Amino acid sequence: MKIRVAIAGYGNLGRGVEAAVTKAEDMELVALFTRRDPKSIVTRTDIPVYHMDEAEAHKDEIDVLVLCGGSANDLPTQTPAMAKYFNVIDSFDTHARIPEHFANVDKVCRENGTVGIISVGWDPGMFSLNRLMGQAILPDGHDYTFWGKGVSQGHSDAIRRIDGVVDARQYTIPVEEALTAVRNGENPELTTRQKHTRECFVVAEEGADKAAITEAIVTMPNYFADYDTTVHFISKEELDRDHAGIPHGGRVFRTGVTGFEGENKHVIEYSLKLDSNPEFTSSVLTAYARAAYRMAQKNDCGCKTVFDVAPALIHPASAEELRKNLL
Amino acid sequence: MKIRVAIAGYGNLGRGVEAAVTKAEDMELVALFTRRDPKSIVTRTDIPVYHMDEAEAHKDEIDVLVLCGGSANDLPTQTPAMAKYFNVIDSFDTHARIPEHFANVDKVCRENGTVGIISVGWDPGMFSLNRLMGQAILPDGHDYTFWGKGVSQGHSDAIRRIDGVVDARQYTIPVEEALTAVRNGENPELTTRQKHTRECFVVAEEGADKAAITEAIVTMPNYFADYDTTVHFISKEELDRDHAGIPHGGRVFRTGVTGFEGENKHVIEYSLKLDSNPEFTSSVLTAYARAAYRMAQKNDCGCKTVFDVAPALIHPASAEELRKNLL
Fold it and tell me: How far is CA A116 from CA A15, A84, A119, A277, in A?
């Protein structure tokens, strides 16, 4: 019997989960929930679409619900609400609010005997896991996280809000010299500016003051002021042709020393190069949805994160096969 | 109260665990067991040394025993024997015999209510974990494992057995073109020869036939015949001066595609660059010793591998701290 998966929300992430589940032989999609008019949704696969308000009625048909909404407005309420009926999983990524979200989901899960796994993806998610394991293995050391090259949706949006801007795409780029210094085990102390640069592709209104737009971008507090930022003005056609993708990625390093004199250096580097940020996140969500189901099957309940999930639980093969083929 | 750790075997690995435990604030070393005369052992720290035969008498003083013997002759018997009295952990690395070793340890652990974690280190260990997670996240993809640049003890030993050879050191080196092709998501089919080269530094007896030694090396079945191998003859002084370290490392890749048309490529790369192969393995063992203790505290028992251990269990911080600081 396959694991019956449902999706809540049909944006980039929801579509990514739909694609990922079709590649998982042990899973099947049984429902899509939306807050829009279900009739207005055209799905890629043959999957029943229901309004979010009808979710409870399908509680016995679903093994795990993958929440694909946004961290700002959707997940803080949706994940706990749905944990009442379902094993749930989300990609909540507002780092500062994770403890609060965890507590909210945990309470509902424990009251209802469900499993919730939150903040699953690559950061938070795979990057977090590598930070944890790096620290545990090399306690005498340093952590570094670099992002990019990749599109930052938040920074792109911030540019779009400037007067005279029609559209924009912002890339976060790690500084090569900083990567090299870390990789060489030099343990550099790096400022924000020394770690990443920002590159912006901007479509301006006809006749707009480009110098003023550039100034508004590079001096923008929080978003750009602390970085070396370059701004390129291009046409809408160029933006659509050359910058339509949503690539991202990054690297987590742990560098540290061992031996009584700290005489031996070690470098652990975990790197991701992703053509599609949302589809990779969806793929991680789908793998951990399998774990949520399996943990619930063992009568576990409560809120979990990637830190609490034994890796074998995310792989479809049996424990015997994993030991034989992958250990 | 600290986790009371004991070590069995005082070679490179045992000394590495001794050093690693001194860096773990939540652990203390309480015993070292040896098959040699305990009086002959000079430890680096102030740790009581006992003969291996006395181990049972100390069962109530030890929370977890780290077995630091060899995979060929020591661990297949020692780990199950010691699992009768202790929670145990080892770095058993004969991949083909892991299922058998697992079964032997599991049986004793279950009969005695102990936890055993086997095959902990980097390969098997961290590399295995990355193979598993890569497959789970990107099921439509390819795995690649590269080793080096690093010293292969087995290959160095094989050279030393050749007539006329005084000493030798062999480095396994990944082929840069192969790494680049994998990193670019080209999914190359790679032969043994295309993945790694082998470089040998050999000290020959005076008057030895160097051409014959070279021929014996490069044509040696299993060890060298399938590789492009280079041989350098150097003096014993040069070998001791320039090749005394035991560096190693390598990379595990998972490359794969997502999307309904497989239109988006992704590359996951996990890389290790280690000055000391045994000390890094010891550091992984020490982190997972913490997990063995914690699993036993929760009344878990039986044999485990890194696949079965929730990552939070290897880090000294509390679950709350981990979520707050590392997620």
Answer: 21, 10, 10, 23
Contact (CB<8Å) A138/B283: yes
Query: Which runs of consecutive H residues, i.e. helices, occur in A50-119?
Result: 75-83, 98-112
Measure the CA–CA gap between B25 and B317, rounded to whole angstroms: 11
**pTM for the model:** 0.96
Do the beta carbons of residue A43 and residue A32 sit within 8 Å?
yes
Paired with B151 in beta bridges are B171
Average pLDDT over residues A236-262: 96
User: Does residue A168 sit in helix, strand or coil?
Assistant: strand
Task: Pick B276's closest partner by Cβ from A258, A279, A306.
Answer: A258
Alpha-carbon distance B327 to B325, whole Å? 6
Q: How many CA atoms lie within 13 A of B206 on its CB side?
A: 0
What's the rounded Cα separation, in Å, for the pair B271 and B174?
12
pLDDT tens for chain B, 327 residues long, are 999 999 999 999 999 999 999 999 999 999 999 999 999 999 999 999 999 999 999 999 999 999 999 999 999 999 999 999 999 999 999 999 999 999 999 999 999 999 999 999 999 999 999 999 999 999 999 999 999 999 998 899 999 999 999 999 999 999 999 999 999 989 999 999 999 999 999 999 999 999 999 999 999 999 999 999 999 999 999 999 999 999 999 999 999 999 999 999 999 999 999 999 999 999 999 999 999 999 999 999 999 999 999 999 999 999 999 999 999
Mutation site for A-interface testing, chosen from B94, B105, B106, B266 by largest number of A Cβ within 10 Å: B266
Q: Report the C-alpha gap between A292 and B242 in whole angstroms.
A: 51
* Cβ neighbours of A258 in B, within 8 Å: 16, 19-20, 276, 279-280, 282-283
Q: Are A133 and A163 in contact (CB under 8 A)?
A: no
DSSP run (H or E) holding A265 = strand A264-274
Quick check: B279 and A273 CB within 8 A?
no
Contacts of A246 in chain B (CB under 8 A): none
Give the end-to-end CA distance of chain A in Å, rounded to a whole number: 27
B120 contacts in chain A (CB < 8 Å): none
For residue A10, give how far its alpha carbon lies from the nearest alpha carbon of chain B (Å): 15
pLDDT tens string B111-160: 999 999 999 999 999 999 999 999 999 999 999 999 999 999 889 999 99
Q: Do the beta carbons of residue A165 and residue A203 sit within 8 Å?
A: yes
Of B16, B44, B307, the CB nearest to A311: B307
Residues of chain A contacting residue B138, judged by C-beta atoms under 8 Å apart: 283
Query: Which residues of A are less than 8 Å from B258 in CB distance?
Result: 16, 19-20, 276, 279-280, 282-283
Select from A16, A128, A327 the Cβ nearest to the Cβ of B326.
A128
- Tens digits of per-residue pLDDT, A262-289? 999 999 999 999 999 999 999 999 999 9
Distances (CA, A) of A30 to A22, A54, A94, B23, B178: 12, 14, 29, 50, 42
Contacts of A183 in chain B (CB under 8 A): 273
- The confidence score (pLDDT) of residue A244 equals 93
Least CB–CB distance from A287: residue in B136, B271, B280: B136
Parallel, antiparallel, or unpaired for β A302-304 and A115-117?
parallel
Identify any residues that bridge with B142 across adjacent strands, giving them in sequence order: B255
The strands making up B150-151's β-sheet, listed across from edge to edge, are B150-151, B165-174, B196-204, B228-233
